[in-house]
Structures are given as structure tokens and as C-alpha cells.
């Protein structure tokens, strides 16, 4: 696929302060919160018979005309659609609901809350929440982005130029720093959750595994993050991991963008740890104190491999580039670089400088690319589809675990537990 001339349009800023109206509704529960999202995104309050504003009403999904399928969501197809009133292109994603009696699962409430409260130019923007004809169908309406970085990278014959990689990595780190500043960890950072616009903007999407974290030690669901981008502490079964797991994923993405190939394309947890040890040297208690106490530390036999081959594997990268990659791919999560520190790394101020988003190359939409075919692109696509299917399994399992932990928060059957569940959600 050949890049077409760069777009001159600017990367639009959608950064605006947190809307207190939304925050208040988020406390009140999903129906109100969803209604508030619809309002904040431009939906008009519907006056009742007395001329006073009534409760927020959700718009129907029938306001949107489905154009084509653009992605396989864990709980349904993601569609490109057109807003019949404004003509604007959007992406429609079905939100998971339980059976009618049980209402909205806590994981969907979390996804919605993060989307409502986090607004940043490098996070995909939630425009509205709309309902379908059935009682249990709720759809999220997002700004439409023509590319999914997974599909785009797989179809490119050559990697991005280094200045372009810097531009993309800087945007990704800005999104992650913004989320971490607000006590949100994403827990599923990977190329297919990075969208890309014709204006050169990168947008992190998919908050299906995101959750709020605490500044003190807490236990979280083990086994999160799609395998290729999963941090070593998660592979070793840690339950009290931190937001540093997102930075490991950023390191994997940095390397993948530089060489147009996934860094650790392992199919099993053991294969993943072998690949990491082979490239970075085997971790041990000396470089990573506490590693031996992790639940699965005895389950895997790591090779005796003492060398770090990053410099050899990335010969074209400057010393400071290798240093940044090393700091992102640091085994000990306590020593791993943070997103804010990474943004200040000298790699971003040395030549070649990060390209400005508006000068990034543009490509024909990755959502329009034909599937199938032969050769490298098809092989890569197939491999990524397998990895994606695995990722969807991870997410489904996680949602089941969360349901066992909390129960379903908002169905009639459990209405009395709502305040308690809401408190524990954060
Ligand atoms: N706003 C959007 N614009 C364009 N494509 C999108 C958008 N949101 C999602 N997609 C496509 O749909 C795929 C699945 O969406 P995602 O939110 O990641 O769902 P899932 O939870 O199942 O992974 C993405 O990888 C991407 O290809
Ligand atoms: Mg996804």
C-alpha cells in the first residue's frame, strides 16, 4: 500500500475539561449516565408536557444508517455508520448487556464511565449512547477513524520512517499519561486498539478492560492484556500489578512500529517468556526483586540467557532510542519508566524529530482493505486475527470473573446492591 500525499488538515483538539454534569450522572447509574453522555454530545433534553426538562431520553440507533462492518467486537460487530441527520460518519459498537432481568454488567458500566470522564485528543471520542429496538441493545457511537493500526501495519510493505514512529509513540504516551494521571489503567494496549485518522492523529480505543486503580497495593484480575503485549509480571500471575503494565505494551508497540513485525508473537505464556528472555536476557531475583514470589514463578523454566540483544536487533536506532526501549521493556515494573518520564525522554528531542501529525502520510482506509490474498500481508493478517481471537477470549473470561465477583449491578433483581457495587467499582 502506497501512502498518498500528506493531509494539510490539523489534528483537531477535543480536549475539554471534565463535565461535572456527567460526573454527577455517573454516580447515579448507567441509564442516567448514558443519558447524560447523549446530552453532553449534543442530544437535546426533551421537554415534557409542562414545558420542564424531563429525564434524559436516549436517541434510537435508527438515527444511524449502517454502512459496513469495520471490526469484530468482543460482543458484536463494530459498524461504520452515518448519522442520518448530520451525514457524519461514526463507528457503532454494541455494549454488552446481560439478560434483560440482570441489566448492565459492571464491566460495561466501567467502560462507559472511563469513556465519559476521559477526553483527550489521543483517546477515541464517545459521541453518544443510543438504544436499539430490543430492550437489551445499547450502542456506543464513536467518532469514526479510517484506520486500525494493526491492519495498517500488516498491510505496509515497509515500516514507518523513524520520525513517524516518534510521532505515533509520542501520541500514544500522551494518551497513556493522561489516563494514568486520572487513575485509569487501560490493560489492553495493542495495535488493533490504536486508531489513526487522515489528519495523522493516533487514538487509543477499547476500554473493555480498563479500570480505575489505587495508589496503594490492590489486587486486580490476573491474566489481562492480549498475549503479545502482556507484561512479564502478568504472565507470572501477579494480581497486584500496577499501571506499569501499560508501559510494557507501549514498549512492544514502539518496537513493532520500528520493524513492522510484532516483537513477541508468542502463542502461549511459556513461549512469550522464552521470547522475552531470548531478547532481553533472563530475569532473575537480582534484577527484579520479588520475581521469585510471583504465583507462577516456578511454573516456567526460563533459559539461562544473560545478554540483552536490543542494540543488535535495532541497529539503526540511536543510543537514546535503545535506552528508551530498554526502559519501557524493563522486567521489574517498579523500575519501568512511567508515561510522563517517557514523554520527557531525550529521544524525542534528538534528530530525527517527531514528525508533526499533519505531515504524517495518509493511506487508503485500512477498513476498506480486502481480506484474504497471499504473501506477507495476508500471513500477517492471519496471525493477528488469531491473536485478536485470543484477546476476545481474554476479555470474555474477565467479564465472567467480574460478574462472579460483583454480580450484575443494575438489574432489577439486584437493585439493592447498586450503591455497594458502585463504591467497589472504583
Ligand atoms: N471509532 C472507530 N473507528 C473505526 N474503527 C473502529 C472504531 N472503534 C473500533 N473500531 C474497529 O473495531 C475493532 C473492534 O473494536 P474494539 O473497541 O477494539 O472492540 P473489542 O472490545 O471487541 O476489541 C477495532 O480493532 C477497530 O478495527
Ligand atoms: Mg479491541
Automatic annotation (TrEMBL):
The keyword 4Fe-4S does not apply. It holds the Pfam family Pkinase. It comes from the Eukaryota. PROSITE patterns: PROTEIN_KINASE_ATP, PROTEIN_KINASE_DOM, PROTEIN_KINASE_ST. Residues 1-11 have a biased composition (Polar residues). The keyword Manganese does not apply. GO terms for cellular component: nucleus. One of its GO terms (molecular function) is protein serine/threonine kinase activity. ATP binds at residue 93. Residues 64-348 form the Protein kinase domain. Keywords: ATP-binding, Kinase, Nucleotide-binding, Serine/threonine-protein kinase, Transferase. SUPFAM superfamilies: Protein kinase-like (PK-like). GO terms for biological process: regulation of mitotic cell cycle. Residues 25-44 have a biased composition (Low complexity). Belongs to the protein kinase superfamily. CMGC Ser/Thr protein kinase family. CDC2/CDKX subfamily. This is Protein kinase domain-containing protein. It comes from Chlorella vulgaris (Green alga). The lineage of its organism: Eukaryota, Viridiplantae, Chlorophyta, core chlorophytes, Trebouxiophyceae.
Amino acid at each position: 500500500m502506497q501512502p498518498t500525499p500528506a493531509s494539510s488538515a490539523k489534528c483537531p483538539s477535543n480536549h475539554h475539561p471534565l463535565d461535572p454534569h456527567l460526573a454527577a450522572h455517573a454516580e447515579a447509574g448507567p441509564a442516567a449516565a448514558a443519558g447524560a453522555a447523549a446530552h453532553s454530545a449534543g442530544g437535546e433534553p426533551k421537554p415534557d408536557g409542562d414545558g420542564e426538562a424531563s429525564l434524559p431520553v436516549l436517541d434510537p440507533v435508527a438515527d444511524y444508517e449502517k454502512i459496513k462492518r469495520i471490526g469484530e467486537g468482543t460482543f458484536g460487530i463494530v459498524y461504520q455508520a452515518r448519522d442520518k441527520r448530520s451525514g457524519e460518519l461514526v463507528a457503532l459498537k454494541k455494549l454488552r448487556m446481560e439478560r434483560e432481568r440482570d441489566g448492565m454488567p459492571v464491566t460495561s458500566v466501567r467502560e462507559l464511565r472511563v469513556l465519559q470522564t476521559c477526553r483527550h485528543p489521543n483517546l477515541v471520542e464517545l459521541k453518544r449512547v443510543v438504544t436499539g429496538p430490543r430492550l437489551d441493545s445499547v450502542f456506543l457511537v464513536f467518532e469514526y477513524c479510517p484506520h486500525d493500526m494493526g491492519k495498517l501495519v500488516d498491510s505496509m510493505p515497509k515500516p514507518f520512517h523513524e520520525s513517524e514512529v516518534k510521532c505515533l509513540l509520542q501520541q500514544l504516551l500522551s494518551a497513556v499519561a493522561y489516563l494514568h494521571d486520572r487513575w485509569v489503567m487501560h490493560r489492553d494496549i495493542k495495535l488493533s486498539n490504536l486508531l489513526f485518522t487522515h489528519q495523522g492523529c493516533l487514538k487509543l480505543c477499547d476500554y473493555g478492560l480498563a479500570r480505575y486503580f489505587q495508589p496503594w497495593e490492590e489486587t486486580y484480575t490476573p491474566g489481562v492484556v492480549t498475549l503479545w503485549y502482556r507484561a512479564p509480571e502478568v504472565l507470572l500471575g501477579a494480581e497486584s500489578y500496577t499501571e506499569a503494565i501499560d508501559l510494557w505494551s507501549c514498549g512492544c508497540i514502539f518496537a513493532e512500529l520500528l520493524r513492522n513485525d510484532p516483537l513477541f508473537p508468542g502463542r502461549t505464556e511459556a513461549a512469550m517468556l522464552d521470547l522475552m528472555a531470548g531478547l532481553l536476557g533472563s530475569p532473575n531475583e537480582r534484577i527484579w526483586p520479588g520475581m521469585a514470589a510471583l504465583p507462577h514463578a516456578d511454573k516456567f523454566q526460563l533459559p539461562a540467557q544473560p545478554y540483552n540483544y536490543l542494540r543488535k536487533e535495532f541497529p539503526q536506532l540511536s543510543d537514546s532510542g535503545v535506552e528508551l526501549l530498554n526502559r519501557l521493556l524493563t522486567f521489574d515494573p517498579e523500575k519501568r519508566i512511567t508515561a510522563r518520564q517517557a514523554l520527557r525522554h531525550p529521544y524525542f528531542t534528538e534528530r530525527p524529530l517527531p514528525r508533526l501529525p499533519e505531515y504524517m502520510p495518509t493511506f487508503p482506509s485500512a477498513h476498506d482493505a480486502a481480506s484474504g490474498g497471499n504473501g506477507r500481508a495476508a500471513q500477517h493478517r492471519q496471525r493477528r486475527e488469531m491473536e485478536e481471537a485470543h484477546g476476545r477470549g481474554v476479555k470474555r473470561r474477565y467479564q465472567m470473573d467480574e460478574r462472579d465477583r460483583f454480580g450484575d449491578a443494575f438489574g432489577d433483581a439486584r437493585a439493592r446492591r447498586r450503591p455497594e457495587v458502585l463504591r467497589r467499582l472504583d
